[in-house]
Amino acid sequence: MVMVHGDDKGLVLPPKVASVQVIVIPVPYKDADVQAICDACSETAEELNNAGFRAETDLRDNYSPGWKYSNWELKGVPLRIEIGPKDMAKNQVRVVRRDNGAKEDISRIILVDQIKDLLDNVQQSLFDAAKQKRDACVVVAKTWEEFTKALNEKRMILAPWCDEEEVERDVKARTKGEMGACKTLCTPFDQPELP
Description:
By secondary structure, the protein is α/β, with parallel strands linked by helices.
């Protein structure tokens, strides 16, 4: 999962497995009411937790908001909520997705429903991307030459299979030398026809 979904900024975790699904970060300016912003962050996280999400706030005052963004991106938290003075004045929050960086301003009135939709969308997007990567690595081989070529290229191979242990041992022995022995994994229910 780390290798499939991670990027240069760190982890990108699917919401269903992330220990923290939403992080709420205050973004106070110098002349802003810092306590009111922190209270709004705590209320937002509590509201999300009561709705069944795994949400936390980062109220540490010895780090800048930018540092906190990077820190939580590194940990792979799927959604980040930013609350600043302008957001409080408009009764909204800014939500940032970890998987693609998209930013969206959402009214606090509909926040819980929107967070559910966003987390579902992040989950589906990550699944679709992983499936696309996996499918791009699969090669269909019908001859021994195609099979060994794909194996040398470190690809996953979908080949007709008779499901006999003796044949599997023979294939392992024949591929063990140069390429490293191959093995049968994830036999599909629908087999391609034997050539």
